[in-house]
Automatic annotation (TrEMBL):
<dbReference type="InterPro" id="IPR036688">
    <property type="entry name" value="MoeA_C_domain_IV_sf"/>
</dbReference>
<keyword id="KW-0460">Magnesium</keyword>
<comment type="pathway">
    <text>Cofactor biosynthesis; molybdopterin biosynthesis.</text>
</comment>
<dbReference type="Pfam" id="PF00994">
    <property type="entry name" value="MoCF_biosynth"/>
</dbReference>
<keyword id="KW-0808">Transferase</keyword>
<dbReference type="InterPro" id="IPR038987">
    <property type="entry name" value="MoeA-like"/>
</dbReference>
<dbReference type="InterPro" id="IPR005111">
    <property type="entry name" value="MoeA_C_domain_IV"/>
</dbReference>
<comment type="similarity">
    <text>Belongs to the MoeA family.</text>
</comment>
<keyword id="KW-0500">Molybdenum</keyword>
<dbReference type="InterPro" id="IPR005110">
    <property type="entry name" value="MoeA_linker/N"/>
</dbReference>
<dbReference type="InterPro" id="IPR008284">
    <property type="entry name" value="MoCF_biosynth_CS"/>
</dbReference>
<protein>
    <recommendedName>
        <fullName>Molybdopterin molybdenumtransferase</fullName>
        <ecNumber>2.10.1.1</ecNumber>
    </recommendedName>
</protein>
<dbReference type="Pfam" id="PF03453">
    <property type="entry name" value="MoeA_N"/>
</dbReference>
<dbReference type="InterPro" id="IPR001453">
    <property type="entry name" value="MoaB/Mog_dom"/>
</dbReference>
<keyword id="KW-0479">Metal-binding</keyword>
<dbReference type="InterPro" id="IPR036425">
    <property type="entry name" value="MoaB/Mog-like_dom_sf"/>
</dbReference>
<dbReference type="InterPro" id="IPR036135">
    <property type="entry name" value="MoeA_linker/N_sf"/>
</dbReference>
Length: 402
């Protein structure tokens, strides 16, 4: 397993045999960013009746070009009376179109003279009319299974009077870090110690990807303690994520522990940053097989690998296609670089001006430079053994997504 593996091979191994988590019923008020487990069928037509798209005057189109008496005033929420040919009604946006009318003339085009309205000529039928069911027809699929509930989707559900939905349960994730030199923020640093960058960063990303981080701990820097902590974490979660301890140093115990209490599918990938990344399975005490993702300790490597591997893993567990891949933008590079045998994921800022997308690479692409991740809009994907010059086209994975 010493040969460097591709990102595609790693993803295939990670997602092989993944089964979506079960469903639960939640209120729509608590369903933001949750993933639908079942399709939702529309109960009502939207709009529920023919209505006016403008403040104006409702009439039959054949009566346009005349002075028509105004026989009623129709506000939104009011049930209108039918109108006769040769008359019109004052109507407001969203109000139900009266029987006998088939168009609305916006008020700016009408001159009112006493109790009558001078209507311009040649008004077509259906002018400024929103027809019943033109947005949603009762019985049609309102939202597909696997849809992640954003603001518009929640509004769509509310338009049908839906108050609760079946969504995928959030996958339970255990988040572990290794390294006696790692100290939690709020404590003083001793010589040789650093603050725990990865824990809050990965917790936020995992929750953004739809997970529930249910177990957080630090693994001891010894083989037996690492093995015991991994076994405990496997009993608490569906996915175990670690940072650090997957390299080849004498104090890196995670890889050996995985091989003892589970199996290692892939180790060492052909990507930069993030080569020392391990993927495998852990055997829980109840017989379950728990996915394992061992991320590098360097914060940039963990950040990049989270987008490349943890996001699609959560997508598979949630049966959510939108999480499977990141949106790809084609951009022109404004930088030069040359890669070796590993594919490079470079942090870039994107400038979108004058119909062109330009990728600006941060000058220091080191795996410890987390400030570049704060400012990055995307990851520019530079193939292995390639050279990029200013003006060349490159694919960029968009990070400004939910």
């Amino acid at each position: 397993m010493s040969e460097l593996q591709s990102v595609e091979a790693a993803l295939a191994a990670l997602l092989e045999g993944v089964v979506a988590v079960d469903a639960e019923i939640v209120g729509c008020a608590q369903a933001s960013r949750r993933v639908l487990a079942d399709e939702v069928i529309a109960r009502l037509d939207v709009p529920p009746f023919h209505n006016s798209a403008m403040d104006g005057y409702a009439l039959h189109h054949a009566d346009a070009g005349q002075r028509l008496p105004i026989v009623q005033r129709i506000a939104a929420g009011v049930s209108p009376q039918p109108i006769m040919r040769g008359t019109c009604a004052r109507i407001f946006t969203g109000a139900e179109l009266p029987q006998g009318a088939d168009c609305v003339v916006m008020q700016e085009k009408v001159e009112v003279v006493g109790d009558a309205a001078d209507i311009p000529a040649q008004v077509p039928a259906d002018n400024n009319v929103r027809h019943r069911g033109s947005d949603v027809a009762a019985g049609a699929v309102l939202l597909e299974a696997g849809h992640r509930l954003d603001a518009a989707a929640l509004g769509h559900l509310a338009s049908q009077g839906v108050v609760e939905v079946a969504v995928r349960r959030r996958p339970r994730v255990a988040l572990l870090n290794s390294g006696d030199e790692i100290v939690e923020p709020g404590r003083p640093l001793a010589a040789g110690q650093i603050y725990n960058t990865n824990r809050p960063m990965l917790k936020e990303l995992l929750e953004r990807f739809g997970a529930e981080v249910t177990f957080i701990a630090t693994m001891p820097d010894d083989a037996e303690g690492t093995r015991a902590m991994l076994a405990l974490a496997a009993d608490q979660a569906e996915v175990v994520v670690t940072t650090g301890g997957v390299s080849v140093g004498e104090e890196d115990h995670v890889k050996n522990a995985i091989e003892e209490i589970g199996r290692l599918d892939l180790w060492r990938l052909a990507l930069k940053p993030g080569k020392p990344l391990a993927l495998g399975r852990l055997d829980a005490s109840d017989g379950r097989e728990v996915r394992f993702v061992g991320l590098p300790g360097n914060p940039v490597s963990s950040f990049v690998a989270a987008w490349l591997f943890l996001r699609p893993l959560m997508g598979a567990l949630l049966a959510c296609p939108a999480l499977a891949t990141l949106p790809t933008l084609s951009a022109r590079a404004d930088f030069s670089t040359r890669t070796g045998p590993r594919r490079h994921y470079m942090r870039v800022a994107l400038n979108m001006a004058q119909g062109e997308v330009t990728a600006h690479a941060f000058p220091d692409q080191g795996s410890g430079v987390l400030s570049s991740c704060v400012k990055a809009d995307a990851l520019a994907v530079v193939p292995a053994n390639a050279q990029v010059s200013p003006g060349d086209r490159i694919d960029c994975l968009w990070l400004r997504v939910d």
